[in-house]
């Protein structure tokens, strides 16, 4: 049997509930606080209020140990850890962790201001704002300074006043003064804001109270959780005003904007070169220091850039994670995929400034530019250059270079000439145009048929001999 309120027709299941409700209409408040004289309509509200005076906080958070005086406050706090936002605005889709926050937000759309001041008739959308406003009329100042006894109508005014006694500067002023009054007891690091200290302390404790509902990953800061959640949602709220490109992280947007502005705020102290990102500067500084902190666990080879290490590791694993959507071909390096995609798209982004001819690859442009500059390449093929560089690193290079039987060879950077010994035609052979390698050929043909000059592998001795004749023809033409 339901009991109905005669004033508003609201129904209740018990007489006690109806009696409590009727006090809303009669404004009866029979339960008085002995400490401050404040009255309440329900005894439970009085008990909760008394904890303000006693400081009792019986409700403990199992995640972080923080205590609360009311069970509702504990439940609300627990949503900080879970990230739960169960209350969604039907107008704009924005979510909130508390029903009260949603109701307050709804008034932004409706323009509703249900709380009216009885003194002046002013209407306000939030009940807390109404209470603060009423103190203008009543002159009530419930917030008292414990140091000097001065009273204030608002909590924030009391906090501002207390800085006079503590000589603590307002948070914003610390930006200018550089003052950092909050010190970490673990490492001595100082902070200008107390909340930043609490966040930092989680570095030492390892506490990660914010958990992602999608994948279970935990974070030490709520901002990091929100940023991570965009990985799942695909949300990119930060848009570049120049080109309209969107980003999920505001820091990535700022870095991107420097592409348009050309701003490079990070300068190398060694050579003065400037960079748009701090990470690029740190990577560049390793050029001067020679530091290679990233080591391959398979072969021990070291790299200065972590991305280069990852690309190298795919040599061992054979992994090719970058797949062409057009033909399905896979690549181990993303740059190789981009070059390959131009085969399908026909894109040629590299343009010759002399004649306007375009190329799909930068190396093809460089090769073409030599037509205009008439510069002769040191090596006709990149693998020839790689093979030549190995010559310099050979332990017996001094012994091989000591034979001066032939003074000309393939040109090399730094005016270095390859000395081709025991595999060259005689002076008589060069005069008659006979460049065949006869008796001396066995000195250079190795068991695996590898060219000593450019390290190119051949499948047979005959092909290797023909390959050497091509080298000799180049040398003879160069000397003529």
Automatic annotation (TrEMBL):
Its main location: nucleus. SUPFAM superfamilies: beta-beta-alpha zinc fingers. The keyword Hydrolase does not apply. Residues 3-30, 31-58, 59-86, 87-114, 115-142, 143-170, 182-209, 210-237, 238-265, 266-293, 294-321, 322-349, 350-377 form the C2H2-type domain. PROSITE patterns: ZINC_FINGER_C2H2_1, ZINC_FINGER_C2H2_2. Residues 382-404 are annotated as: Disordered. It is found in: Nucleus. It comes from the Eukaryota. Keywords: DNA-binding, Metal-binding, Nucleus, Repeat, Transcription, Transcription regulation, Zinc, Zinc-finger. This is C2H2-type domain-containing protein.
